[in-house]
């Protein structure tokens, strides 16, 4: 290990006196590459919130509802107010100049713009 | 437009190193085992310190990297953010920074363990276990699975005696309430890193029934900005690292009082918009401008060229003289040989010749002739045809002496000789004739030129005009011919590729041949085969054959004429430029050659400055179909189980903004405007910002943990094992002690 790395104490020591079980004892073969930790979705599913009274707050039911206000539509490219919508690319646009840009965009970029608002075409 | 020099990404959090050795003693001397350790485990930053202190001891980014050391190859663990200069010893390509969080819930406890290891280590823990109660923050309504795993980790791995869980936003609210910033009834609006919470407080206690969460936060703002910038400047995509964009966001983003009108300002290109734009100049080195070389330079280069030319000339001269010498020697030798041969007696000739290597006298003679000729050539004397002719003329009759004698008067040898002479004669005559023709052509051309010159002198303008029109006609004609020949292949430049394969690559003639071949191949079985009955049929083979290509025809008359006119025009008219060349050059060169300017390396932040944080108010802009910050307040109040107007008013008159994303300037004004819209007219609205939206959660927790009643809120491993998970689910801290 290089001296400046040691000096900065960059690397976490493998043995720490204050631990009852060391990392290498827990994972003797090094870090298990595919050790599965439940993702949030799975955790929520395992919580079985449906078995509890609905008025009791839990991680799922405290989520906010969809907005009641009409959605403000903005141009995907410029961020200006977007009165128009291009049916071919599904992008919203502010004016003719932006429309020209949209029509000259390669599909990859169109999809990336759509992906910013999670509206891209997903192939399954 | 204000021009900003952005500072490099600065690593703000290096204090962790300095504390270590110092606190090794503290842990044993100052802090007894009853002093709790307080951890604010946020999705972006991990803050750890001692209860009762005003600031956390150590703050670092809540990420872990496990790169491989480049030389030794061992996998190491690096927690938090570090100077990238130190990371150059590690191969970070395989594993990026990883977080223990999924949204705002800890799920990866392996990573969490590394982070806790690092935190405790930097706190100076050096005993066999962490013998201090731990207060750690979690999200609102943390799933019990995550909570129990965290408790297990703390109990089993670190030997922590007791643990308490609390909510960061609640600690922040309580802290500010104690300092008189907000009241005991109120709302805490906490836009965090991955989520935004609104928690109503009644009598100083959070009411989770009324709380709501929108899954949007500072992370999304930065990510949105990163995406927008890399879409806007695809060439500089590599510049927009997560850290850099985070910096840009913190330095330049603001929340517009009214998005639509602000955007319109930019759309109009108003002066204010110009002022509000920020420009980030990327490092850019102007390409070396090619200055016209100075006089000296030109002179020096010319001198060098001259010298080189001189040397070449000298070399050529030396070579020539040596060759002349050689040839002269040879000639002399041959002359000497023939002289000697003349002296040698007739019968001794063969034996004499066998020594020299020549077969006969004629051979020596012809060799001598050859040498003389090449000598003449080497000396640069033109082998003047006139003289040759003159020389030839008198000898003609002698040379072709046999041609005029009838065959029957000759011997067989003489007959052969006569045939030879006949062919030679016809050849020389042909040569003569062609020479004559050339001479005549020359004369004709001169005559034409003279004529044209006369015309030009007569009326120069008219003449030039005529020339131009003629040029135009001809060039068009030639152009068309060329087009026909290549037929579209000209544009894609595939003429050189051999022209097999698709039809478009072939020129017209080749295509015709292809057509003929295919028709010939498939024209079968239709009745009687009459091919070959007529003579024209056989023409087909001629058409099919490859030699039919007129490619090697060479420049035809029109082209020659065109070339002549071009040269003439170039002589007469200085402004004349041959069109076809220049046009093609321009179209192909211009777009490529445009040099990159300083402007190409500028990142302009205009609408992005307020567009990105605007997603906190309009989450559906990034596809999250939930209410934004302002509406959340209304949702939260509506969700409260018991409420009256007085309570509503009390709540709205004490709204506290905390959490990292509330640092955007313009936040409170915008929030006030938004909440005023959804509340009844005339209701009191007071929005306050937390004293320190980032650190108040830790401070509140530290203050909470330092009270004597804190012990009543913790639970030990024994409690946990006895009461089980169900109890842990309903575990809830009481913030008012």
TrEMBL record, chain A:
BP GO annotations: chromatin remodeling
Vps72/YL1 C-terminal domain span: 73-102
Name of this protein: INO80 complex subunit C
Protein location: Nucleus
Biological source species: Quillaja saponaria
Primary location class: nucleus
Gene Ontology annotations for the cellular component aspect, listed alphabetically: Ino80 complex
Pfam families named among the record's database cross-references: YL1_C
InterPro entries hit by this protein: INO80C/Ies6, Vps72/YL1_C
Keyword field: Nucleus, Transcription, Transcription regulation
UniProtKB/TrEMBL annotation, chain B:
Region annotated Disordered, chain positions: 363-442, 482-502
Biased composition (Polar residues): 394-404
Biased composition (Basic and acidic residues): 378-393, 428-442
Compartments (UniProt record): Nucleus
InterPro entries xrefs: Actin, ATPase_NBD
Annotated coiled-coil segments of the chain: none
Protein name: Actin-related protein 5
Origin species: Quillaja saponaria (Soap bark tree)
């Amino acid at each position: 290990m290089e001296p400046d790395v040691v000096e900065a104490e960059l690397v976490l020591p493998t043995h720490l006196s204050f631990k009852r079980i060391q990392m290498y004892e827990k994972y003797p073969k090094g870090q298990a590459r595919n050790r599965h930790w439940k993702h949030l979705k799975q955790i929520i599913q395992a919580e079985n919130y449906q078995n509890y009274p609905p008025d009791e707050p839990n991680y799922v039911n405290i989520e906010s509802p969809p907005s009641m206000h009409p959605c403000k539509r903005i141009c995907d490219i410029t961020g200006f107010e977007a009165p128009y919508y291009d049916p071919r690319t599904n992008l919203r646009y502010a004016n003719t100049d932006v429309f020209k840009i949209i029509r000259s965009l390669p599909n990859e970029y169109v999809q990336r713009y759509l992906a910013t608002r999670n509206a891209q075409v997903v192939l399954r | 437009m204000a021009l900003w020099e952005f500072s490099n990404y600065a690593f703000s959090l290096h204090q962790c190193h300095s504390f270590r050795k110092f606190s090794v003693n503290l842990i044993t001397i100052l802090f007894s085992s009853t002093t709790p350790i307080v951890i604010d485990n946020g999705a972006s930053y991990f803050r750890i310190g001692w209860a009762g202190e005003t600031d956390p001891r150590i703050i670092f980014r809540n990420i872990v990297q496990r790169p491989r050391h480049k030389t030794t190859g061992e996998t190491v663990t690096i927690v938090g953010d570090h100077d990238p200069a130190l990371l150059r010893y590690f191969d970070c390509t395989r594993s990026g920074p990883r977080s223990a969080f999924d949204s705002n819930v800890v799920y990866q406890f392996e990573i969490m363990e590394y982070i806790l290891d690092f935190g405790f280590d930097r706190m100076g823990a050096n005993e066999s276990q962490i013998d201090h109660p731990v207060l750690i923050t979690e999200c609102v309504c943390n799933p019990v699975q995550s909570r129990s795993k965290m408790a297990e980790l703390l109990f089993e791995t670190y030997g922590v005696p007791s643990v308490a869980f609390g909510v960061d936003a609640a600690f922040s609210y309580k802290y500010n309430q104690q300092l008189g910033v907000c009241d005991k009834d109120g709302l805490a609006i906490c836009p965090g890193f991955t989520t935004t919470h609104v928690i109503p407080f009644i009598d100083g206690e959070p009411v989770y029934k009324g709380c709501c969460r929108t899954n949007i936060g500072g992370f999304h703002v930065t990510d949105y900005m990163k995406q927008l910038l890399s879409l806007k400047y695809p060439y500089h995509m590599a510049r927009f690292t997560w850290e850099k964009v985070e910096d840009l966001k913190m330095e330049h983003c603001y929340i517009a009082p009214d998005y639509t009108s602000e955007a319109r300002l930019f759309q109009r290109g108003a002066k204010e918009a110009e002022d509000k734009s920020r420009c980030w100049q990327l490092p850019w080195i102007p390409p070396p401008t090619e200055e016209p070389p100075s006089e000296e330079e030109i002179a020096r280069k010319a001198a060098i060229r001259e010298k080189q030319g001189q040397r070449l000339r000298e070399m050529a001269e030396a070579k020539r003289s040596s060759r002349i010498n050689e040839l002269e020697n040879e000639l002399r030798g041959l002359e000497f040989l023939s002289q000697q041969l003349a002296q040698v007696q007739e019968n001794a000739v063969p034996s004499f010749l066998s020594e020299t290597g020549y077969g006969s006298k004629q051979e020596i003679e012809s060799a001598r002739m050859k040498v003389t000729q090449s000598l003449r050539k080497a000396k640069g004397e033109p082998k003047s045809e006139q003289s040759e002719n003159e020389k030839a003329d008198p000898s003609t009759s002698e040379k072709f002496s046999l041609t005029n004698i009838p065959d029957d008067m000759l011997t067989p040898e003489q007959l052969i000789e006569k045939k030879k002479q006949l062919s030679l004669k016809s050849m020389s005559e042909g040569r003569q004739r062609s020479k004559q023709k050339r001479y005549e052509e020359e004369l004709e051309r001169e005559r034409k030129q003279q004529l044209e010159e006369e015309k030009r002198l007569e009326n120069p303008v008219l003449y030039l005009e005529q020339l131009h029109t003629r040029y135009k006609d001809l060039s068009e004609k030639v152009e068309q011919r060329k087009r026909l020949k290549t037929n579209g292949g000209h544009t894609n430049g595939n003429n050189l590729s051999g022209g097999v394969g698709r039809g478009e690559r072939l020129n017209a003639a080749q295509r015709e041949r292809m057509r003929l071949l295919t028709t010939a191949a498939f024209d079968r079985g239709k009745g009687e085969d009459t091919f070959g009955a007529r003579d024209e049929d056989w023409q087909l083979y001629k058409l099919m054959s490859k030699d039919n290509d007129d490619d090697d025809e060479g420049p035809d008359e029109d082209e020659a004429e065109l070339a002549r006119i071009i040269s003439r025009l170039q002589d007469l008219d200085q402004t004349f430029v041959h069109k076809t060349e220049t046009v093609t050059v321009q179209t192909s060169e211009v777009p490529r050659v445009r040099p990159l300017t300083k402007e190409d390396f500028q990142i302009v932040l205009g609408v992005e400055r307020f567009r990105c944080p605007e997603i906190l108010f309009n989450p559906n802009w990034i596809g999250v179909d939930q209410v934004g910050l302002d509406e959340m307040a209304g949702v939260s109040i509506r969700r409260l189980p018991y409420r009256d107007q007085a309570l509503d008013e009390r709540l709205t008159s004490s709204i506290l903004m905390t959490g990292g994303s509330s640092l955007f300037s313009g936040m409170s004004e915008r929030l006030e405007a938004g909440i005023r819209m959804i509340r009844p007219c005339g209701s009191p609205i007071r929005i306050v910002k937390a004293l320190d939206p980032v650190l108040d959660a830790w401070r509140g927790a530290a203050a909470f943990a330092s009270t004597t009643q804190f012990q009543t809120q913790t639970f030990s491993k024994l409690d946990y094992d006895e009461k089980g998970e169900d109890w842990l689910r309903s575990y809830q801290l009481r913030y008012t002690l």
